[in-house]
């Protein structure tokens, strides 16, 4: 690509104004009912700019629901969510990265097409991508090291590449808050390392990241704070504060056993919760 | 030898040209190609979003509207397009709303409405004496009786549909691939969904005379599914689908002319053969 690459800094667009003295994400007394059950109850927390948060909890603990409410896709029954001081519905700065099993991988689009979708809102109606938009897309693809696969159909990517494509899409969207639903599950160790390295780069760009994960060890080693969830907020703080036996028993109950080598969780993925959200 | 070849060539050319010496065949071919292109492009979204059953139901649901228009206008064909268009849009948006809010599963709700409305349409038409012939035209199409006036309507409304798809291509594509992304990008998801339903409705009205309500779903789904076998790009899928749909229209009408087969059935059968070839070709290539 000739010329200069656009900076990854996000410029202000015509969406809701950001009150920069307000937290990136402020959740207070959030309660959500889903299919007649309480999915989330009285959740309160807030995030600082550029933080990396791991959201952990058992299957069906409400992690996906939390992300969807934060993204403005689901409406809360009580309490409120504010992004930079206002409701999510006006913001286009929230990047939601779906679980891989929620995606139609046979859809006839290339990697670059999917990343360009992130710019749909910035383009506005009736406009087709300009050079500037392709620059954004190419730069995002370079950031996630997928530039050489840009014209591949999306089913031809490996699991890790698929995940990185969605991160590139969120970058093209100029997302300031990224919500990643189980980005690491089902990936081999090198692919997981690739994603975790990308999260480090995003931190330098001041992107705030929330990642749902099942791996407590990774949560402890790669994230600034951990949010332990089981319908209500069990604990929120730095890993040492959150990951102690009492909290974990409170969150996981019988689905956990403590062994000399460490804590074993009895669940591995949150398909159960994912199924709830198929529409 | 050369003389023999020339003679064979001439026979072939007259084989192709003879049907076109009839004005009704000329209009029929133009109508079949136009309808094929519109159906193929809209059908691409129908296939990708898994809306085949919706398309089939919608086509059947407009029968009472056509029947009413038919009774009101005393058997005249010209006003039927408008009756079909009106019923189709109302039915599409109605089915869209009902299936979203229903207490029962979406496909069950659609099934109940579709069969009920279809029965109502048949009941209305059966009050007329010549009902068997007219009913079969509504059900299976009668592209060879397309008037110049109808041709203009097909051109104008089909053109509008294509222009709308072109204008909202990226929005429709984003919404079809990832509705959650569309929501977080704050695209007007509800409006876009209804716009797409309306486009399908207009397409159904435009196609009515060519393939009829019972075969409509084939025009929406089969060429798009054929193209889906052959490409990994959405824009290419639309172009290839349009190509196969046009070819099906032309070949179908020649079959109809020479073998005296019902035109709608001939077009759909040709499209089906194309699909089977593409399917087999893909299977072989995968091995």
Number of helices of chain B: 13
Q: Judging by the overall fold, what is the CATH architecture of the largest domain in chain B? A: Orthogonal Bundle
- What's the gyration radius of chain A in Å? 19 Å
CATH topology term of the largest domain in chain B? ABC transporter involved in vitamin B12 uptake, BtuC
| Chain-averaged pLDDT of chain A | 83
CATH third-tier fold name of chain A = Rossmann fold
Radius of gyration of chain B: 20 Å
Largest sheet of chain B: none
Which CATH architecture of chain A would you pick? 3-Layer(aba) Sandwich
Main sheet of chain A?
6 strands, mixed
Count of distinct structural domains of chain B? 2
Describe the secondary structure blueprint for this structure.
The complex is a heterodimer of chains A (279) and B (287).
Chain A: E1 25-34, E2 37-47, E3 52-56, H1 63-70, E4 78-83, E5 94-97, H2 111-117, H3 120-123, H4 131-143, H5 159-172, E6 177-181, H6 189-204, E7 208-212, H7 216-222, E8 225-230, E9 232-237, H8 239-242, H9 245-252, E10 256-259, E11 262-265, H10 271-276
Parallel strand pairs in A: 3-7, 3-8, 5-6, 6-7
Antiparallel strand pairs in A: 1-2, 1-4, 8-9, 10-11
Helix pairs in contact in A: 2-5, 4-5, 5-6
Chain B: H1 2-20, H2 23-48, H3 52-61, H4 63-72, H5 80-101, H6 106-125, H7 131-140, H8 148-167, H9 169-177, H10 179-184, H11 189-230, H12 234-259, H13 263-286
